[in-house]
Input
Amino acid sequence: MSGGEETRRALCVFETEGLPGAPAGGKGEAIVDDDGVSVGGIRIEFLDADTLSDERRVLTLGLHPAGQLRLSMLARRHETFARALADARDEARVRGLLAHGLGEPEPFDGALLEPGPARDARLLVWPTHVTVVAAGGDPFQIPLGSVDEVRFVEGTWEVVLATADGHFPLRPARAPDRRLRPRRPKGPDRDARALRPGFRNAALLGRPRRAGEGSRQ
Output
């Protein structure tokens, strides 16, 4: 079994709420795949999992239109399994809920600062748009053709995408090199080159920053 497959499996205690026909709870091995998670004879598709939270070492999937699946007592597997579950859910919902063009995204860990509260987020820079996957929520995307300005905020290391519909302040997980701050290209070339330098250097330089750190200037 590869390391990736290993992190997608863990023994746990599970509980259900509002799931017709499902057992109220029990113990079993939770197994994550690309489309969902299974445990104790229960199968949850990620496209039905509207929310995912991790509080007090209990992973809770909130389901559409109602119901919950809670996974706990993961012991030392909690952090690695929680990340594998979140990554698989995010990827499935991005793939299933949003349309994408050709090419592959460049991923960055970071944070979505507004609307508050600030939340950790996965930032995917595609050739034509940026997809934001905020922790526990649904993904959304910002077409680069709608971006009027890309600003870099000194001190807080934010990359702000300004559009006619509003401003989207994002913070890559590490502070970018200010010499390579993002800028909007001139002319018809409106691709991801305006964002990748700052985001890429954010992944390489400075100390890690979490969603609640720092104050805006």
Summary: The domain at 3-97 is CATH 2.30.29.30 (PH-domain like).
